[in-house]
Amino acid sequence: MSYKSIKWFGVIGALSALSLTGCASMTEPWNDAPVDHKDDSPAVIYSMPDGFANVASKCDGNGFRMFSTREGTNGGGKTVAVIADPKCKGAKK
């Protein structure tokens, strides 16, 4: 067997190994933390006059109100405050 043949077998073997390991991760679960329940109820949106840096407010069901906004760079949510709110369900009296 020539040096070129061995080199090509090595390249093909390496590419096969890389592609097979990439495909193996497609069958794995997302490995997220378990979710007890999900609250998709609507939030109250406070819209700023320029349309940017809007703030959303929502009760968490345990007596707290959460405020969040979007980060400007990638659109991900950021929680900016969590306060006790007696109007929220589950609040301690």
Task: Annotate the secondary structure layout.
Elements: H1 3-24, E1 44-46, E2 55-59, E3 64-70, E4 77-84
Antiparallel strand pairs: 1-2, 2-3, 3-4
Summarize the structure in words.
It is a single chain. The protein is an alpha+beta fold. It has one domain (3-84). Helices cover 24% and strands 25% of the residues. It contains 1 helix and 4 strands; from the N terminus they run αββββ. It has a 4-stranded antiparallel sheet, with no helix packed on it. A hairpin with a 6-residue loop joins strand 3 (64-70) and strand 4. The protein starts with a helix and ends in a 9-residue tail after the last strand. 0% of the residues are buried.
State the order of secondary-structure elements, H for helix, E for strand. HEEEE
Query: Radius of gyration, Cα only, in angstroms?
Result: 25 Å
Principal-axes geometry comes out as elongated
Q: Which stretches of 5+ consecutive residues score pLDDT under 50?
A: none
Structural class, from secondary structure content?
alpha+beta
Numbering strands along the chain, what is their spatial order in the largest sheet? Answer: 1-2-3-4
What is the count of β-strands?
4
Termini separation: 83 Å
